[in-house]
Amino acid sequence: MSLDMNFVRDQFPGLKNEWAFMDNAGGAQILKGCVDNITEYYYSNNVQLGGSYDVSQAALRSYAQGRENIATFFNASMPEEIVFGPSSTVLLQFLSKSMASQFSAGDEVIVTITDHESNIGPWVWLEEKGVIIKFWPMNKETYELELDALDKLMTDKTKLVAFAHVSNLLGTINNVKEITKFVHDRGALVCVDAVAYAPHRAVDVQDWDVDFYALSLYKTYGPHHAALYCRMDQLKELDGLYHYFYGKDKIPAKMEPGNANYELSYASGAIVDYLVALGEQAGETGSRRAKLETAFKDITEQENILSEKVLSYLRKRNDCTIIGITDGNSPRRVPTIAFTVKGKDPEQICLAMDKYKIAIRFGDFHARRLSDSLDLTKDNGTVRISLTHYNTVGEVEKLLSAFDDILSS
Ligand SMILES: Cc1ncc(COP(=O)(O)O)c(C=O)c1O
User: Which of 1.20.20.10, 3.40.50.150, 3.90.1150.10, 3.20.20.450 is the CATH number of 5-30+287-408?
Assistant: First the structure.
């Protein structure tokens, strides 16, 4: 069964707007359920946690419920494996800091040229400790990260490989399970940036056996908040970032120094409630997790329709170069589509598009090293259309007709 688009769009009050939002990889619209949860938390439970009185106990339960829901989102084996924080950038910086004592001078960490800087910079920082940083290059003809190239970089000194599940510029889905096994077989850990993946496909950290996996909830239909999965055996090894008297065993609070954002953690649970509702509409009667997985199948179906509509348009034009996989129905792609237009400035294209009330974006999207390696940065990077399941065929048709006007002028 396909998505009920009226139901879907009704869950996002921000869509009742004259704009068509196609900058979703920058930030998605928030679910009404999340906003309602924030209000409910503030009006009913806004006290300090840890008190003996019942409102404080209720606040603690709400916070725990948020973590349980997000554990379902990741398919983590227990809620304590989920660490909340303000952004993926901060969580990955926390992670490298809390791992630093596990590295010795001469150890190696591999990062990719295709990542957002959030999953490169925190590891490059380890150079201060004498760690050697190597870059996993991309095949510039196919835009692919290849295991042969990784193999050449890995040695018995390699401790960690950090890579993105999906590049926020290329939109290509890397095979996390295969890469993780490859890295584990060679004795190293993985840290995966899933920010550009999580809004589009079901996450399954147990199936993939990843060690660390980060995503931003505000791009996944929730509030400005983020979550990092740390597999329990690895979480136990991390140094605590909280007060000295909270030891290494204070899990996961040792990775959440200070008071956490209880209201946003609780509110984020509504992302899972929404996916469960979509799964039920599709006829799934199993567990909440099974419903979520079914929902993502319908989400994929809708996104592929939109993606292929945009990509087939770009393929037909001889002045456009798609940066990434060109087939919108490819199972290796999410609808985050970057391209250049011969002789046209990406900034000017976006400024012209604003007049049509269609929100898109240009630039390097903080994948600066990728943009540099493709020699795009000096020309304002690329234009990026980042769609998601709540976009409609009608919106995409409006976009393509606007492109016809803008690119012919
Ligand atoms: C792939 C990717 N990783 C990381 C980030 C950073 O996320 P946050 O804003 O939560 O730090 C972004 C944001 O655009 C992203 O697209």
Answer: 3.90.1150.10
